[in-house]
Design brief:
- The complex is a heterodimer of chains A (369) and B (259).
- Chain A is mainly alpha-helical and 369 residues long.
- The longest helix of chain A has 40 residues.
- Chain A is flat, with a radius of gyration of 29 Å.
- The mean pLDDT of chain A is 87.
- With 259 residues, chain B is α/β, with parallel strands linked by helices.
- Helices cover 34% and strands 25% of the residues of chain B.
- A ten-stranded mixed β-sheet of chain B has the order 5-4-1-2-10-9-3-8-7-6, with helices on both faces.
- Chain B starts with a strand and ends in a 5-residue tail after the last helix.
- The chains are: A mainly alpha (369), B alpha/beta (259).
- The interface between A and B is medium-sized, with 26 and 34 residues.
């Protein structure tokens, strides 16, 4: 042990003129108390309490900081308060949505047979009985879940090759030609197409080609592809663009042909980004309601064939259960089923997003020694 | 297996812009030729025309002839892919394929072209190429690891191993040491010395000491001013170029009195 000549001091001279570490907590506590007091005068509600407390907290902390620490630190604290406040404002609706769907959807989801039965043969009489006698709500979303998965899968099978090949053309062969510029322009336009227009397009197209009144899962898949393709093109294009040119040149210099270079070097290097882009595109269209309503109709029974007959999907299931309850006199069981389906849909989208991350990680270029 | 290159009256254009004007040079087989000159004088552009790599840039074209043992690279019906499989290239920045292991990087030229190769042959080729690039001892225990985990100098030698694995006639090197530290540079220079027993090597470098150390012949390129085309000023034995050049511009450049 070496003895030190430096005298032991409580506070370093270098930290003079700073607020103590606990300052924000003190101000927060005060703001909450004062906020509650103010709200008690005008009539208490949680939302107003939060707003008033946040304003009081910001004013208090910034004022205190200005008095002790000076203008620069006060501005810093003000900016921090604004940033955190905006973040909370952005987060609130999200949490609120998830909470509402969880609370309303869980009873439906936990209902036995909810995921394994369809609405085939479920009539208003069952719902009336369950409301009057307390029997379990019968019927489920199996047919809708199956329809959603089939339609989305078919839409993916259609859009991924089209979108990826378009992106390959734009990045590798386009060279800013008029055709490439036109494609880029129309892809941008397609991104903004309202989904109902995509549905009408697919419906009209099949009416003209196959026959009037053609409503099948495949028509819905085409409608969803119209929405998906621009997203896939855009994300794949960005991913292919960031593949360094040096890798292409390295392959060319080894005497590798251009198409092999694209297939074996460029796409594998970008595959993680492309895969997660595709997954996000699926998540984007899986909840579409309007285009499915006009293209696949809505069914109450299981349909395993996307190429014939009307088909249910989760969004249209929710829509019809809320708008036309199975039993008009007691709509509660229908609304419970609708919330349950909404919860399943959110879980599906969440799983897809998680899947995108896992795919990105699995395909990412390996590092390590 | 090495061939000579003879260039006759070569002009290189980017669109309408004449980048390199009227170059004629003979590059001997099994020798090291260095291109030196100030930045922007067209030496890299010229190097890339020797295996038609400049065509990757839209609008690039050449006039004149480049003869590989008498066959014109720019003749009618010549496939640039065939040219590049005979004339390999190593780039300024090491660029191993990030999705591939060290072993797969070496085999890239074979595998990407879908040539069938047995495991035994592949193992032999990997070992031969990595030994040719002086890298075998450093990586033999981790061939399955990704190439991007190597140091910069090792990555560059991996790229050289990748280039010699396709058994080219000529190896072009575009400032292969400019991103490397002196020790890695020394390793690459030793390697270039070994390579010339089997290959024709052409190297672009900014480092005049490096040109003096590794090359048999040196070509000096210069540019009259911005927007003017680059020109080949003088080419000769390295010793002559550095000690007794015939042109004033060359003497100014190699003695550091340039500009």
């Amino acid at each position: 042990m070496t003895s030190t000549l430096t005298p032991v001091r409580k506070r370093s001279a270098l930290t003079k003129g700073q607020l103590p570490k606990f300052a924000p907590y003190v101000v927060l506590a005060l703001a909450l108390v004062v906020g509650a007091a103010i709200l008690a005068v005008v009539g208490f509600n949680a939302f107003g309490w939060g707003i008033v407390s946040a304003i009081l907290f910001t004013a208090g902390l910034v004022g205190w900081s200005a008095a002790v620490e000076g203008g620069r630190k006060a501005k810093d604290k003000l900016a921090t308060c604004l940033v955190v406040g905006s973040f909370l404002v952005a987060l609130l609706p999200l949490i609120s949505v998830i909470w509402t769907v969880l609370v309303n959807g869980l009873p439906g989801l936990l209902d036995p047979g909810f995921l394994t039965t369809s609405m085939n043969g479920v009539t208003g009489a069952f719902d009336n009985k369950s409301v009057e006698e307390g029997t379990p709500v019968v019927g489920g979303i199996y047919h809708a879940l199956l329809g959603t998965i089939q339609i989305t899968l078919l839409a993916t099978v259609i859009s991924v090759p089209v979108g990826l090949l378009t992106a390959v053309y734009l990045v590798e062969y386009g060279e800013d030609r008029p055709l490439a510029r036109a494609i880029t322009f129309f892809v941008d336009v397609m991104t903004g197409i309202p989904s109902i227009v995509a549905g009408l397009f697919a419906a009209a197209f099949f009416f003209a080609v196959v026959g009037p009144g053609t409503k099948t899962g495949a028509v819905a898949a085409v409608a969803l592809s119209v929405l998906m393709i621009p997203v896939v093109v855009r994300s794949s294009e960005e991913m292919l663009k960031i593949v360094p040119n040096e890798l292409r040149e390295a392959a060319y210099a080894l005497g590798v042909r251009k198409w092999r270079t694209i297939l074996r070097v460029v796409i594998p290097t970008a595959i993680s980004g492309i895969a997660s882009g595709v997954t996000l595109a699926i998540a984007r269209v899986i909840g579409e309601t309007a285009p499915i309503l006009v293209t696949a109709g809505f069914a109450t029974s299981i349909n395993n064939n996307v190429f014939s007959g009307w088909m249910a999907s989760l969004p249209t299931f929710i829509y019809t259960q809320i708008l036309n309850p199975t039993s008009p006199s007691s709509p509660d069981p229908s609304s419970q089923r609708a919330w349950g389906a909404a919860l399943v849909l959110i879980i599906l989208v969440m799983l897809l997003n998680l899947g995108a991350r896992l795919i990105a990680r699995a395909f990412a270029p390996k590092t390590g020694r | 297996m090495s061939k000579r290159i003879d260039v006759k009256d070569l002009n290189v254009y980017y669109g309408k812009f004449l980048a390199v004007e009227d170059v004629s040079i003979n590059i001997e087989a099994k020798s090291v030729t260095a291109f030196i000159g100030p930045s922007g004088c067209g030496k890299s552009t010229f190097l890339r025309t020797l295996n038609r790599m400049h065509e990757v840039i839209p609008g690039a074209r050449v006039e004149g002839e480049v003869l590989l043992d008498g066959d014109n690279l720019y003749g009618q019906g010549v496939d640039p892919v065939t040219v590049r499989s005979q004339i390999g290239m190593v780039f300024q920045r090491p660029n191993p394929f990030p999705t591939m292991s060290i072993r797969d990087n070496v085999l890239a030229g074979v595998r990407l072209n879908n040539h069938k190769i047995s495991k035994g042959e592949a193992d032999a080729l990997v070992e031969r190429s990595l030994q040719g690039a002086n890298l075998w001892n450093e990586v033999k225990d981790r061939l399955a690891k990704p190439g991007s985990g190597l140091s910069g100098g090792q990555q560059q030698r991996l790229c050289i191993a990748r280039a010699i694995a396709v058994e080219p006639q000529v190896i072009l090197m575009d400032e292969p040491c400019s991103a490397l530290d002196p020790i890695s540079t020394l390793a690459i220079e030793d390697l270039i010395n070994d390579l010339k027993d089997q290959y024709t090597v052409v190297i672009v470098t900014h480092n005049m000491q490096q040109a003096a150390r590794v090359s048999d012949r040196t070509a000096f390129f210069n540019i009259a001013g911005t927007g003017k085309p680059g020109k080949l000023i003088e080419v000769g034995d390295t010793h002559t170029i550095f000690s007794n050049p015939t042109q004033k511009a060359t003497e100014d450049y190699v003695s550091g009195r340039f500009g």
